[in-house]
Predict the 3D structure of the following.
Amino acid sequence: MIIRIDFNSDEAIYIQLRNQIIIGIANSQIREGDNLPSVRDLAEDIGINMHTVNKAYTILKQEGYVKLDRRKGAVISIDADKYKAIMEMTNEMKVILAKAICRNISCKEAHEIVDKIFMEYESDNGL
């Protein structure tokens, strides 16, 4: 999996890293049971501070995407609590859709965007 960090972005590096890993899971570049690089290795590869990688891994653990094991490091392990995931998504979508409404994006346009993104992930996964 290739991780792309935009050092000129306003978005924090640990958030970019977290998002890249979640996208990698969604498009099957990394799968359940796969090990992520060690904090030190990933920090060196990207050229960032180890604490930044550690923060991203900690958030991924809190969100149910990885388990942290002292011997194996960070391992992809999806927490399959669908109800919790739907509630979290609902809360996040409320803000995203509020922003869309403020920018005059219609419900139809929002649905088209969601459908397009789902189709991209489904084609990446061979579905």
